[in-house]
């Protein structure tokens, strides 16, 4: 089934998204979903690259994998928070994050893997309205 036939695709050309994951397939899947909205999308294969890109560009949303070999997503998110308090950071994980992580004030929320197109599209619409 074609994604555009399954869901209403929002038109969000002014939204900037950074997707961070060390697995190329996960990056590709998330990027394809976000790109359908005409949002600007960049990808990073690790936490260090995510920090570098976040320094160079203000993103509206960062989707951050939790477990990455160079720098885990929570630590990368903490470093990004030090210079950008406004970006929405959502971690991506196969597990629901602990209350400690959710209440630390570093991330805004989470999305579970495998990513569901409708969940990601709804999140993008929510972010675009804030």
Description:
It contains six helices and five strands. It starts with a helix and ends with a helix. It is globular and about 35 Å long. It has a five-stranded parallel sheet, sandwiched between helices. It has helices at 3-6, 24-35, 47-56, 73-83, 99-102, 117-128, and strands at 16-20, 40-44, 61-65, 88-93, 109-112. The model has no long low-confidence stretch (mean pLDDT 91). By secondary structure, the protein is of the alpha/beta class. It has a single domain (11-124), classed as 3-Layer(aba) Sandwich (Rossmann fold).
Would you spell out the secondary-structure blueprint of this structure?
Blueprint (H helix, E strand, L loop, with lengths): L2 H4 L9 E5 L3 H12 L4 E5 L2 H10 L4 E5 L7 H11 L4 E6 L5 H4 L6 E4 L4 H12 L2
Parallel strand pairs: 1-2, 1-3, 3-4, 4-5
């Amino acid at each position: 089934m074609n994604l555009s036939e399954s869901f209403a695709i929002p038109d969000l050309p002014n939204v900037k998204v950074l997707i961070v994951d060390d697995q190329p397939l996960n990056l590709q899947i998330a990027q394809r979903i976000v790109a359908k909205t005409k949002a600007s999308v960049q990808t990073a294969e690790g936490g260090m690259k995510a920090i570098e890109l976040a320094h160079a560009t203000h993103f509206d949303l960062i989707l951050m994998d939790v477990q990455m070999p160079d720098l885990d997503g929570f630590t990368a998110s903490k470093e990004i928070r030090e210079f950008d308090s406004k970006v929405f950071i959502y971690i991506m994980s196969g597990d629901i994050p602990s209350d400690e992580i959710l209440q630390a004030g570093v991330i805004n929320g989470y999305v579970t893997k495998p990513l569901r197109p409708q969940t990601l599209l709804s999140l993008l619409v929510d972010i675009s309205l804030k």
